[in-house]
Automatic annotation (TrEMBL):
It comes from the Bacteria. Residues 425-434 have a biased composition (Polar residues). CDD domains: PASTA_pknB. This is PASTA domain-containing protein. Residues 272-434 are annotated as: Disordered. Residues 241-306 form the PASTA domain. Residues 1-24 form the signal peptide.
Length: 434
């Protein structure tokens, strides 16, 4: 009996996560329009103005700062008074505040003016995880935070959040596991309407510095905004987000190459799970398939196999300025037809749990022919008025019959089986309200 009790206690400890495997990262919710309890800058001075925005769902929690449509803007020239923040931080009377502020961002106080000149004001279109900072007793106090969609922030040249406009509090990348967070709504930050775990995003730096940000007008989703880096809105140019963009033929490309081509085509990168695959993973299929025309910022989910690791770590890296750009073709136009020949068999290391194993190479004439494609129902094309929302791919244990999800396009029976999209599930997020 004692032995049984001991075994039962061990099982309880493992399940409850006492060993740390189920540790949840505490995250403080920050709602639009709610003043900070410990701001760097007096919010009554009107440094920034938030907007009312409903958070949009994402396909992949970690998104790079150059993702088309990741951020929003308005026709209003200024949502953040950068000049006012610069005057405040360079005033000798605010020396201690400036030291704490610049220390968070890894610069000196002398570098503050030049750094601010390279920041760009935007509005969040997703509930966004960041490492926020309060100003207490002359020091910056970090804490994990979930900023509600509609909050005005400043982003750097690689699209990473740098400061919250209304209070000037510096922001850094979220350092926890985005798939295991516990959101606390308190201090006036009540749980907002429309909050969903599927709408939470954490931002990684773009592979290289950008010259402009491509935004979506939060008041008019059919209007896109091109905003040069370091400008506040006075030099914006508009474009029509309803204009269609064809999904490139990405089969056989690496995940890094595919991501770059999609971004240059005005489309966002989708994937299963809370962490993207490694950049050298081979793309086996896209959903929707190549040739499908989507509006600006719509997601294209990539199915991959292989790679040097099971996926990119879920903790976003710090700000960088020299991250290498994925190699491979980037300027060639997309092929507007589905592939009719199979991709060569993968020669990379065996895939890990983030992607199912690659299918065997095409059979020889003497081999048994592959089974006919499945007759599962086709998916409808995305509607013109909203980004593509794709349901989870088939289970890895189900019989594989196609390298891409079935659509209304004719099925090519001569294409060989490659891989189905990995199933890792939707990140589980919990929320508590005090």
């Amino acid at each position: 009996m004692i032995r049984r009790i001991a075994v039962l206690l061990v099982c309880v400890l493992v399940v409850s996560g006492c060993g740390g495997s189920a540790h949840a990262f505490a995250v403080k919710a920050v709602a639009t329009g709610v003043p900070s309890l410990a701001p760097f800058f007096d919010e009554k001075q009107g440094l920034g103005q938030d907007a009312v925005v409903r958070s949009l769902p994402v396909q992949g929690t970690l998104q790079q700062g150059d993702t088309p449509g990741l951020y929003g803007g308005t026709k209003k020239p200024t949502v953040c008074d950068v000049a006012k923040l610069k005057r405040f931080l360079t005033d000798p009377a605010n020396r201690s505040t400036a030291v704490a502020w610049s220390g968070v961002l890894g610069i000196t106080t002398d570098q503050i003016p030049g750094y601010l000149d390279r920041l760009t004001p935007v509005l969040l279109r997703h509930d966004t995880l960041v490492q926020n900072h309060d100003y207490k007793k002359g020091k910056a106090t970090p804490y994990n935070s979930l900023l509600q969609a509609g909050i005005a922030i400043l982003v750097d040249e690689q699209g990473e959040p740098a400061a919250k406009c209304s209070c000037g509090n510096p922001l850094r990348p979220f350092k926890g596991d985005a798939s295991r967070i516990s959101v606390k709504f308190s201090d006036g930050n009540k749980k907002w309407s429309g909050y969903q775990a599927s709408s939470v995003v954490a931002v990684r730096p773009a592979a290289q510095k950008m010259e402009r940000l491509v935004l979506v007008d939060v008041g008019d989703p059919d209007r896109g905004i091109e905003r040069p880096i370091g400008t506040t809105g006075k030099h914006d140019t508009a474009f029509d987000t309803r204009r269609r963009h064809a999904v490139p033929d990405l089969t056989g490309a690496t995940f890094g190459q595919a991501r770059k081509r999609l971004v240059s085509s005005g489309l966002a990168v989708g994937y299963s799970g809370s962490a993207p695959p490694s950049d050298d993973s081979k793309v086996t299929a896209t959903d929707p398939p190549a040739g499908t025309e989507l509006r600006f910022g719509a997601y294209v989910r990539l199915s991959v196999a292989g790679g040097t690791s099971g996926g990119t770590p879920s903790t976003p890296p710090g700000p960088t300025t020299s991250e290498p750009t994925p190699s491979g073709p980037t300027t060639s136009g997309p092929t507007l037809r589905p592939p009719t020949s199979p991709a060569p068999p993968s020669t990379s290391t065996p895939p890990t749990s983030s992607a199912p194993p690659s299918s065997p190479p095409p059979s020889s004439p003497a081999s048994k022919p592959p089974p006919p494609p499945s007759s599962s129902p086709s998916r409808s094309s995305p509607t013109p008025d909203s980004p593509s929302v794709v349901t989870d791919p088939p289970s890895a244990s189900a019989p594989v019959t196609s390298s891409a999800p079935v659509t209304s396009a004719p099925v090519t029976t001569s294409a060989s089986v490659t891989s189905s999209a990995p199933v890792t599930g939707t990140p589980t997020l919990t929320a508590t309200e005090t």
